[in-house]
Please model this.
Amino acid sequence: FVEPGRLALITYGPCEGKMCTIIDIVSQKRVVVDGPMSVTGVPRHMMPVRRLSLTDFRVKIGRGAREKTLTKALETDGTMKKWSETA
Model:
């Protein structure tokens, strides 16, 4: 499902092949994603859902979470480590 906290792989554009986290849902076709920049190199920006490949991983964050909150959630949950083990 497209939901805040869902990890996704970017399939098209300048950040292609990088992992990001859905932060907020703008409409049925667009979402706000964030890397965060310090972890994956993806800045916070809006992008179409069709350019994302959703994964089964999810981080417990609120809608519109700050970058600091997202970074902390990724570290405590060990989500990026789990992703690197699967890829």
Summary: The helical segments are 67-77, 79-86.
